[in-house]
Amino acid sequence: MVTLKELAKLLNVSVSTVSKALSDSSEIGENTKRRVTELANELNYKPNRIAQQLKSSKTKVVGVVVPSLMNPFFAEVVHGIETTLGNHNYDMTVCISNESLEKEQRSFDLLSTGSVDGFIVAVARETQTKHDIKHFESVSRTTPIVMFDRVLNDVACSKVVVDDFETVYQATKYLIQEESRKHLLLISNIEELSVGKQRIKGYTKAMEEATFKPSVLKLDDELSPDEVILKYLKENSNIDAIISIDHITGIMALNMVKKIDKDVPNDISIIGFDYVDSKFVSSPKISVVNQKGFKIGQTSAELLLDELNSKNRVKHKTIMVKSQLSLNGTTQKK
Amino acid sequence: MVTLKELAKLLNVSVSTVSKALSDSSEIGENTKRRVTELANELNYKPNRIAQQLKSSKTKVVGVVVPSLMNPFFAEVVHGIETTLGNHNYDMTVCISNESLEKEQRSFDLLSTGSVDGFIVAVARETQTKHDIKHFESVSRTTPIVMFDRVLNDVACSKVVVDDFETVYQATKYLIQEESRKHLLLISNIEELSVGKQRIKGYTKAMEEATFKPSVLKLDDELSPDEVILKYLKENSNIDAIISIDHITGIMALNMVKKIDKDVPNDISIIGFDYVDSKFVSSPKISVVNQKGFKIGQTSAELLLDELNSKNRVKHKTIMVKSQLSLNGTTQKK
DNA sequence: TGCAAGCTCTTTAAGTGTGACCATTGTCTT
DNA sequence: AAGACAATGGTCACACTTAAAGAGCTTGCA
Predict the structure, then answer these.
(1) Helix H or strand E encompassing A129
(2) pLDDT by residue (tens digit) across B161-211?
């Protein structure tokens, strides 16, 4: 690894001359500049980023802490983050909390000691249920944090949220009003998360407005969720629409409906949540709420970059990224 | 951010005393040690990692460069990498090449200037087709690289590969010998990748050994791959088994077979490639080749850590992670 | 003509936080 | 009194940036 010092020695000039020449400073003569840049190119000199970081106390690195990468929604968000950061010459250090509070805390501890300029985080399930926010509070005093999707309202930081309530409310209303469905079932495996609660609320409100009785099938930690769904459908043969609030159970329900020889979408409509492969693995292609994970990642990164690059501390913002109802083959209308 | 210098000032001792006290050096008196550690805890002192990195010229960070995170296989591998690195107190900087050679080069350029101690990479599609390996060669002179899955044989570095050939060979043989299938179709959307080529070879060999004619349906960049599959199945009604060599077309084929009113697995057996959600989105649960992405990530990380922590340069290894045939509902036997 | 002032180019020095290494001080033992 | 030893301090290096100082030249004006 060639350094400024070595270049300086070879050229018989001082280190600072080399440094300035390479940054094209007006203080340095054209002649010297040329000599320096030529040798630098020849020896393939690249400034050592660690030294630059120490000097400037900026790393151009963002810490991204997510519960999982196997969940395609988070994978998509992280992709959006990476793309945006890359466009601004920032790197990202990814930590996976595995939904564990302790792992999340450890990541924040490790990275907050100069390793990153800021954080983008979706809080772990355990953090949300235990509501332990100390690690966020201490870090946010010195380092900007942006939360997305899984958000803690009482942490003072910028946030990017999805309009969970509204989206599911609209989806439910659509099924009631446009497709005249009357017996709508909601399937959930995430009702202990804030996003899950919001989605269930949206469904419940739409149902109550239509004076229908809401029914929610919870699937947490079921060994065979598909069989639970199948049993439920058999025992409640009047179900004529299903809303799933995660990316997987909608497709599962679609397969189970086929098993009891009902037709989708004629007998039963289904709306699920989007993920990258949902249009490939379901037949007919499932109608979904598209959460715009990439956009969420993009927005989070932009928000953080704004905070990092503005000298005067900006006020924390909360941005809502609108989901989109994308109707395909498991609903009747387009 | 409190520093050694500040602690020293507050305690009226020198910086080096504080430094030694905190590293529990025997040179420092118990009394002083106690005073120092107490104040350090009180002020929540954490050594600045950037400074440590500059001093030691080690970052304890690994650069991970993958073509995509939306591909569940890579997401799984990255998860394995993160877990293993975390256990050794290493962090990871993730870059997504998006299958682009140029983006991959940029990532290597940026990170190889002191930012990371080593790399784990699955090479981009474009890199593999254009066979441009300069960025690997120049970096590998100073920084260890481990390649996984998508591997370049002529780059001198450690590798973690999947036994693609053998796995598909065995899967094909299983269908021929144990289930007496005679008209086996292979569906592929990755045949330009080295892994795809190997898998097709495995299938072809097994078919030729049984004196059956191999037939490969290629789906690259198809607008409606499902319809192509459907059409093929209609026109070739003698097909009695399907092997898919990616994570998605197997499930797609399963859905299409259902459409032509054939029974899986009685009329047609299907074997696909595993991914995290495949058992949830298919009905019956698809029989798969399980690629052990987590294990691959783990192995790659361990290999790299070995190289980083051994003083004498170790010889490059190539480790094969065995896939596993996991038979579920789309084949006849267990 | 003399010399201060100004200009261009370059070097010196200080600083970022840490830690290895060596030096210094003081106390105690023999 | 000298050596042993414990405790602490000082210096330098890591690679880079940058403010300030300095060197060497030209210019302008009395």
Answers:
(1) helix A125-130
(2) 999 999 999 999 999 999 999 999 999 988 888 889 999 999 999 999 999
Cβ-based neighbour number of residue A332 at 10 Å: 16
What does the alpha-carbon distance between residue B23 and residue B28 come to, in Å, rounded to a whole number?
Answer: 10
Which residue of chain A comes nearest to B79, CA vs CA?
A69
pLDDT value for A203: 97
Residue A290 pairs with which residues in a beta bridge? A324
Rounded Cα–Cα distance for residues B292 and B290 (Å): 6
The CB density around residue A1, as the number of other CB atoms within 10 Å, is 13
Q: What is the pLDDT of residue A231?
A: 95
- For residue A327, the model assigns a pLDDT of 95
Condensed to tens digits (0 to 9), the pLDDT of residues A17-73 reads 999 999 999 999 999 999 999 999 999 999 999 999 999 999 999 999 999 999 999
Tell me how close the Cα of B113 comes to any Cα of chain A, in angstroms.
5
Q: What percent of chain B has pLDDT over 90?
A: 91
For residue B48, say whether its CB is under 7 Å from any atom of strand C.
Answer: yes
Q: CA B18, CA B28: separation in Å to the nearest integer?
A: 9
Work out if A55's Cβ lies within 7 angstroms of strand D. yes
Test B281 with A248 for CB contact under 8 angstroms: yes
Specify the 3-state DSSP secondary structure of A207.
Answer: helix
Q: Which tokens go with B282?
A: 């298919």
CA A66 to CA A92: how far, in whole Å?
12
Interface test with B, best of A2, A58, A69, A275 (most B CBs within 10 A): A69
- Tell me the whole-structure pTM to 2 decimals: 0.94
Tokens of A69: 């990468």
Asked whether B329 and B285 are in contact (CB, 8 A), the reply is yes
Write phi, then psi, for A209 (nearest 5 degrees): -60, -30
Domains and CATH numbers, chain B: 4-47 (no CATH), 58-162+293-321 (3.40.50.2300), 164-292 (3.40.50.2300)
pLDDT higher than 70, residue B334: no
Checking if the pLDDT of B251 tops 90, the result is yes
Residue whose entry in the numeric block shows the structure tokens 């050679």: B101
Parts of chain A with a pLDDT under 50: none
User: Residue A305's CB: how many other CB atoms inside 10 A?
Assistant: 20
Measured CA to CA, the distance from residue B277 to residue B289 in angstroms comes to 14
Distance CA B16, CA B14 (A): 5
